Structure formats: C-alpha cells, structure tokens
Amino acid sequence: MLLSPIQMKVLVVGSGGREHALAWKISQSPLCDEVLCAPGNPGTAEVARNVSVAATDLPGLVALAQSEKVGLVVVGPEGPLCDGLADQLRRVSIPVFGPGSKGANLERSKTDAKDLLERYRIPTAGCKRFDHSGRAKGYLRSLTEWPMVIKADGLAAGKGVYVCDTVEEAQAAVDAIMEERRHGDAGDRILVEDFLTGEEASSFAVTDGETLLILEPIQDHKQVGEGDTGPNTGGMGVYSPVLNVTQRLHRQIEQRVLVPTVHALSREEIKYRGVLFVGLMLTDAGPSVIEYNVRFGDPECQALVRRLKSDLLPILLATATGTLEKIDLPEWDPRFVVGVVAAAAGYPGAYTKGSPISGLEEAAALEGVEIFHGGTRVAGNELVTDGGRVLCVTAMGDDIEQAREAAYAAYDLIQWEGKFCRRDIGTRHAGKAAEGFALDEDPNEIRGEVLGDV
Ligand code: AMP
Ligand code: GLY
User: Fold this and answer.
1) 126-194 sits in which CATH class?
2) Does the global pTM surpass 0.90?
3) Domains in the chain: boundaries
4) Given pLDDT bands bounded at 50, 70 and 90, which one contains residue 157?
5) N- or C-end of the chain: fewer Cβ atoms within 10 A?
6) Is residue 118 within a helix (H) or strand (E), and if so which, with residue range?
7) Ligand nearest to the CA of 164
8) What are the pLDDT digits (tens) for 264-285?
9) The domain defined by 8-101 carries CATH number 3.40.50.20
C-alpha cells in the first residue's frame, strides 16, 4: 500500500536570490504543502506565499512559524542566525535549518573563527589580533614582508577585508576600520593576517553536528569587472561543476578542513545544524581556510539548486532534526549550470533603484533557463529594480558553452536602464581544461557521500 507522505509548511526567511532559489526548490518537494517566505520578493511570490515579516524581526518570525504551524524554518541570511533566530525557534520546538548564535559566530567574528581554527590546528593564515589602532600600526611598521591582509572582526557585508601592498596602505586600512569606523562595531577588533598565495575555491557542506554531507563545488566571481578586476561584490556570477576541485583536492578539503571543523564545533559543545560554507586558498601546502560562512552563498545557492536533482527538503529537514545520517544520497545533475548576475548601474557602490524591468517572461521561457530575483519590487503593476544585484539568470547546458550561451541569451532579453553584467562568467572553465584539469566521470560517485559520526 502506498502511503501519501505527510506534508508540511516550510518557512524560508530572507528576501534575496538565495531565498528565491531555496523557495523554488522546496516548493517542488512532494513533502511540501506550502512555502511561506518572510519577507520574500516578487520572485518568491511566484512559488511561495510572501508574509511581510522582516528577516530582522525575530519575535515576529517565531510567532509566524508558530501560528502557521510550520514543520521547518530555513534561514537564508547570516544576520538572523547571528542574532539567535535558530535558538529562539528551537526553544519552541520548531525544527530549523541554520546554526544557533554560537555556531553563527564562525561568520560573525573573524577573531573567534581564527581562535577555533588555531585551537584545532585547521590550516589557516597566521595572524595577529588587535583592539587598539596604535598598537596595530606599530606592528605593521615592524613588518618587512608585504602584502598583508587587514580584516575587520565583525560582519561588514564582505567589505571588511583589505589586501595591502605597503605599510602606508595597511595603516590607512587600520584607520578606516578602527578610527573612521567605516564598518561600525565590526571594526572594534582587527586581524592582521599573512597573505596567502594560490587560487581561491569554496566548499559547501551541510551538517547536523555529527554527520557531514558535502555538496557540489560552485565557482563564484567576486569582482565586479571582467577578468577579475575592480572592487569585490557579493558575487557577479557562478558556474558548476568546477574543474579544479579534483577528487584529490576534494578529499583534502574534507579531511583537513570540513571534518576537523565539525569535530571542533562538537568539542566546543556547539550544536551546529546548517550550512558550512568555507572560503579556501589552495596554497602549495594544501587548502587553507580564509573564512567561514554559516549560510548558503548567493549566487552559489542558485547554481546549487539547479544541479541538485534530488528533493532538497529531506536534506534540510534531516539537518535540522539531527538525522542526516539516514538520508538518501543526493543526486546531482552532471550537466553544467551558469548563473549571470544582472546588476544595477553603480553596484557595488551607490546604485539606482526603481528602474522598470521588461523582457523577463520571454527570457524565462528559454530552454533550460531559470531566473531568480535578488533585488526587485513591484511598484504599481510594474516590476522595478530594488537592489544592486537585481536578478540571477541561470541556465543549464550539456557543456559550459551551451550553458553560457543560454544564460546570456536570456540576460540579453531583459531590459532596464543601466543594467550590466560580467560577460566572462564560466570562461575560467576553458582555461582550467587547457591546464589539463578533467571533469570527474560522475559527480555522484565522488561527492554524493554522507560521512556519519565524523
Ligand atoms: P573574506 O571576506 O575573508 O573572504 O576575504 C575577502 C577576500 O580577501 C578573499 O576572497 C580573498 O581574495 C582575500 N583574502 C582574505 N584573506 C586573505 C589572505 N590571508 N591571503 C590572501 N588573500 C586573502
Ligand atoms: N557569494 C559569496 C557569498 O555569498 O558570501
């Protein structure tokens, strides 16, 4: 006899492209009765019921989850996690995907993350900690090797890291962070970190504190300009699979970084249930941790859900309830995905808002294309821009060129005043292929793995 699965309501917290992608994927689950999104955006409204409770309104979110009797809350951004949303939900016995505030400290405080890394001998750059600008500058004057990296301790929307080539630049960074307080309280403490050379990569895993499930690698493009030039952004585009994360490298990241991190959290008695998103430098001595994030990346999440063939909801639910060990292995689409961020003029600096958007329906109708809203709003009966990263246009293809062509064809059909993107998303792939990197035969054989009781 076939029993119909028990369906549940799922609440997704947040309002960006990542949350649209999560809501889109969760809404396809046979286990899902309804997706609520708080506060959501015009994109999530197509797959979920938006409820106008802000992601910063913790009591409002808990009350919403209770009154709607949701079976799972999925927290998108780091802010509410750092503020303790997951702890508050767990206190009223609502399963939540996302770490409590102690776990979220891995992202909130670079100093605390560094303490953990050093205490458990997880590879990372050497550093000195300062809470006084004069002492930091004195130390900088004593250095002979440059560049060095100056980091504000707290959350700074990805803008609190300064790679400095000279002592003058480094001192100016210390002043900007600690004296001018460019990042507010986030700059009460700083790290002066050794500069690591190598290529950057990131790794995504989910853990319930005991079991680790490593997800497919996604390559982000952080800088605003083509050829990786100009200031850093939240991410201008993504592609996957990624050639340079070979099976050997994957194992190194797992054994030297991810497993020891889960051990460390458990030794510190931090019950961590959510995403471990690790930024890495691939140095000659192996992968070294640059930073931890405690949530999915944006736009990485948009690419991840496109390549995930399995139902996402059981994975999120098992992570939230501590039963990850029992889930079926996820199945990944071996095809390529490319995601191009369509941004507003001026981004990542001051940008314009309120420009009417057209052509979205024609673009979304193209084969293999799915468009996620990051910064849009409905004004009257018009869709207008309302953020720096307005949309993420994703497309699947049998090879990277096919995925790129489809993504840019869709992007080109969308119009608004001042729209721009990077035209080189995914072109790194060809460079890596020319260097001799080859694609894994079957991603499911390598990464579709659950490490129990790590
Ligand atoms: P984070 O916000 O910590 O990810 O840092 C932002 C960017 O700064 C990274 O993506 C790297 O490009 C660079 N970065 C951070 N730490 C280092 C380091 N120790 N050595 C070299 N580059 C770094
Ligand atoms: N795309 C990088 C991040 O979400 O942090």
Assistant:
1) alpha beta
2) yes
3) 8-101, 126-194, 199-451
4) confident
5) N
6) helix 110-119
7) 1
8) 999 999 999 999 999 999 999 9
9) yes
